[in-house]
Amino acid sequence: MRVGIDYTAAVRQGGGIGRYTRNLVQALAALDGENEYVLLSAGGWGKGGSAGAWPPNFRTRSIPLSDRWLNILWQRLRLPLRVQLVSGRLDVYHSPDFVLPPVGRTPTVLT
Q1: pLDDT tens for each residue of the chain, 111 residues long
Q2: If residue 9 lies in a helix (H) or strand (E), which one and from where to where?
Q3: In terms of Cα–Cα distance, which of 54, 55, 50 is closest to 34?
Q4: For residues 71 and 95, what is the distance between their CA atoms, to the nearest angstrom?
Q5: Quick one: which of 56, 28, 39, 34 has its CA closest to 4?
Q6: Do residues 25 and 37 touch, judged by C-beta distance below 8 A?
Q7: 97 closest CA partner among 105, 89, 108, 87
Q8: What is the rounded distance in angstroms from the CA atom of residue 64 to the CA atom of residue 72?
Q9: CA dist., res. 97 & res. 68, Å (int)
């Protein structure tokens, strides 16, 4: 299974949703070597480049727009720019930060 996770809050925030997302992904990395994970970060990965070393079943992708601009495009203008343009095919997409981007018919989890 190929799982996409919005990792933007983990890159930008020290606590709250950022901490939750980092801990969730670290637990998945420690427990699951079978499924493939694609971590997406709006606006890049900051000074860390790709946010550190990940197991071989983890990939990082940068969305070349800030999370603010993505929210405007997706929620206000309702542009159907699917997250799969950056992530590739996904079997499920998880957004831990209140907003689901357009994903077509891909099943989603919103926390």
Answers
A1: 999 998 888 888 778 988 999 999 999 999 998 999 999 888 766 655 455 678 899 988 887 777 776 676 666 666 666 777 778 889 999 999 887 888 889 999 998
A2: helix 8-12
A3: 55
A4: 13
A5: 39
A6: yes
A7: 108
A8: 14
A9: 12
| Rg of the chain taking only CA atoms, in angstroms | 13
Handedness of CA 42, 18, 37, 57 (dihedral sign): positive
Of the chain, the end-to-end C-alpha distance in Å amounts to: 20
- Identify the pLDDT of residue 26: 92
88: left (phi over 0), alpha (psi -120 to 50) or beta: left
* 52, two tokens: 């550190």
| Residue type at position 78 | R
